[in-house]
Amino acid sequence: MTSFAKSIMLSVCLGLVGEYKDYSLTQPEQLINKLVIDNKAYIPSCLAAVDGEIITHTNLLGIRIPVALIHLPPFLDILYEDGNPDNVRGKGMSWDLMNTLASHFNFTPVPLVAKHDVVGLKDETGQWQGALQLLYSKEAELTVLPMTYSEERQQDFEFSILLGTTSFGILVKRPEYSPKPDALLSPFKKDVWWWILGSTAAMGPLIYFIIVIRVRLCRGDPTLTRIIPFDHCVWFVYGAMMKQGSTLSPISDSSRILFATWWLFIMIVTSFYTANLTAFLTFNGLKLPIQNVKDLAQDPSISWIAYNDGALVEIIKNHGKLSILRELKDEGRGGFTESRSEAIRLVNEGTHVYIDDIRILSHIIQEDYKVQQKRHPKSPCRFYTAPLASDKDLTFWYGYGFKKGSRFKNIFDRFFRRLSVFGIMDYLHLNATSNLPVCTLPKGFKERQLQMRDLVTTYILAAIGYVVACILLLFEFFCRKKSSRRMRKRTITSKLPPSNDASITVMNIGHLKEFSVPTVEWSKAVYPAVAAKKMSNNVHQKNMKNSKLGAASNPDLIMGRISNVDVLWDKKSNRLIMDDLSKLRGNIIIIDGIPYVMFQYTDNAELKVQKLIVSDLM
Fold first, then answer.
1. Is the pLDDT at 313 greater than 60, yes or no?
2. Based on C-alpha coordinates, what's the Rg of the chain?
3. Helix (H) or strand (E) segment spanning residue 230
4. pLDDT digits (tens, 9 = 90+) for 374-408
5. Residue percentage of the chain with pLDDT more than 90
6. How far is CA 349 from CA 331, 343, 344, 346, in A?
């Protein structure tokens, strides 16, 4: 029924189109140039032919014309009625085209089946094999099989007008589900990760540097002289990246802007990372292991195999951009076969990829899919195709072949031209296989449970963290042990500075909240006191009796104590006023490794504490 419908379609189109200029060119470039030059004159002639219904027929009066054929699915399937090799029947577009030609020109086709299922191939002695051997020996007049154009073939045969282009592809086994062990790193490229790591490493020191500059510039200010330790700044940067928050409270505008900038940066980065990570883990896309010839060289476990037909063999042996295939063949990772079924078996084993005409590969996939569906209705496709290369140089023209000097070439070319101009030839070739791609790589988003292999990177990071933590633990242990040995060798009496108070206050109480009153624990441990004579900038030695008398009436003077020492603070001059400067040496408090003196005073009936950095008093 399909063949009958196609014959009717061809006859109707032929009845609407008359004669027009003949193109006997076979070179693709010349054909294109000729069509462009004659385009303006050709279109009116076609319209005139349709309007006048000019029909030109060449009646061949029923002569017998031998036609060379081979079994070449999807274009032609050779059948034999009653098992008789002389009673040849067939199906497919090439068989329908031969019968339509015979009906239109009134001749009797004599199908001749070549011994080898190849369109044309030269053997080691230089003799043609397959369908072209029948043309070369003058046994057949033409072949209605699509024949790829090449200069070698042009020397021994005649080509019809070139009817279109074809390309070659790679048949690849369907990849198994591939885990995504690099899922944690996949959302960003390497350069993005390096920039994020660099920003994280620089932000902690930058925050600490800005705070130190602010403290230096605001010496004596009771609020702006609080330093956030370096390790706390670094930990804040890391905690913000992990969205853990922080107990640090910046008190200056510069620090607040830095904190807010980092929070904004982290919010944007983590949002993009989370979205891309979700998409990467839930995207249901399979990636072909071999997508072009370059991938073959990078995977030593895969070899290539191609069908031993003339055009493909010639292209692989001579084409400049397929040198990789020739190199792999020399290494024993490539070769040709005379059995497509054997090639499919090797591809299914996962050891080879198969190279052939892209239309033949599509037919192989569809036929295999039909067989698999009968056995297992829910089974997916076993094979997929990929182009041999995306380069236009690997696209080739095809036409139909005639023996050298055939008198039927010009007659049949008019018929082929009509089919080509009105798109019927493209329709026939494209519909040799199903238009609906039954086997396409699955894409889109699909919910799925993560497997153990998807979290490999997570486990690696956790293992690295455990190892680094253990190494640092050992390092801290040996450092503390070495420090303890040094402390035992020191004699406390030799380090005691002269002071009015034999007991020296030394504390290390960690980070204190503002205005908190520390609990002083007295011990015999020693902190090297600062010499009183060096405290000349902010400490002023003065008679406290007269100062106390004037403190009540002077709003710039604040009365207070440093531990058990009475002192005054002059807000106007930012000076500490006391009787004996040496008393400060016995009241130094160490907080996070920084020496302070704690100035306690009463303001509005409320006890307050101001920490003064000893280095600021120098």
1. yes
2. 46
3. helix 230-241
4. 888 878 888 888 888 777 778 889 999 999 999 99
5. 17
6. 21, 10, 9, 5
Residues found in the chain: 618
Q: What is the pLDDT of residues 224-270, one digit of tens each?
A: 667 778 888 888 888 887 777 666 777 777 778 888 888 888 888 88
How far apart CA 530 and CA 618 sit, in angstroms, is: 9
pLDDT at 537: 53
Residue 193 pLDDT greater than 90, yes or no: no
Identify the pLDDT of residue 590: 73
Contacts 24+ apart (CB under 8 A), 182-187: 182/456, 182/457, 183/277, 183/280, 183/281, 183/454, 183/455, 183/457, 184/277, 184/457, 184/458, 184/461, 185/457, 186/276, 186/277, 186/280, 187/272, 187/273, 187/276, 187/277, 187/280
CB 512 within 8 A of CB 551: no
Measured between its terminal Cα atoms, the distance across the chain in Å is: 107
Q: Look up the pTM and report it.
A: 0.57
Q: How confident is the model at residue 18 (pLDDT cuts 50, 70, 90)?
A: very low
451-490 burial: b if 16+ Cβ within 10 Å, else e: eeebbbeeeeeeeeeeeeeeeeeeeeeeeeeeeeeeeeee
The DSSP element (H or E) to which 91 belongs, if any, is strand 88-91
What is the Cα–Cα distance from 584 to 574, expressed in whole angstroms?
17
Closest CA to 331 of 368, 297, 282, 306: 297
Is the pLDDT confidence value at 315 over 80?
yes
Per mean pLDDT, which of 18-32, 207-221, 492-506, 524-538 is the most reliable?
207-221
- Cα–Cα dist 52/18, whole Å: 9
Strands, E, within 315-375: which ranges?
A: 334-337, 352-357
Q: Which of 157, 92, 183, 586 is nearest to 403 (CA)?
A: 157
What is the mean pLDDT of the segment spanning 500-513?
A: 37
Average pLDDT, the chain: 75
Give the span between the Cα atoms of 528 and 601, in whole angstroms.
Answer: 26
Where is 362: in which H helix or E strand?
Answer: helix 358-375
Tokens of 194: 């390096």
d(CA 613, CA 597): 7
Between CA 103 and CA 59 the distance in angstroms is 10
CA-to-CA separations, 458 to 177, 184, 376, 462, in angstroms, rounded: 20, 7, 38, 6
Q: Which two tokens stand for residue 353?
A: 């990829």
Residue type, 209: F
Place of tokens 């330093």: 227
Q: Among 405, 397, 427, 410, which Cα is nearest to 21's?
A: 410
3-state secondary structure of 13: helix
Give the pair of three-digit tokens for residue 213: 């500059």
Token pair 């041999």 in the structure block, residue: 388
Q: For 446-500, what is the HEC assignment?
A: CCCCCCHHHHHHHHHHHHHHHHHHHHHHHHHHHHHHHHHHHHHHCCHHHHCCCCC
Give the C-alpha separation, 161 to 165, whole Å. 12
Structure tokens at 456: 């490999």
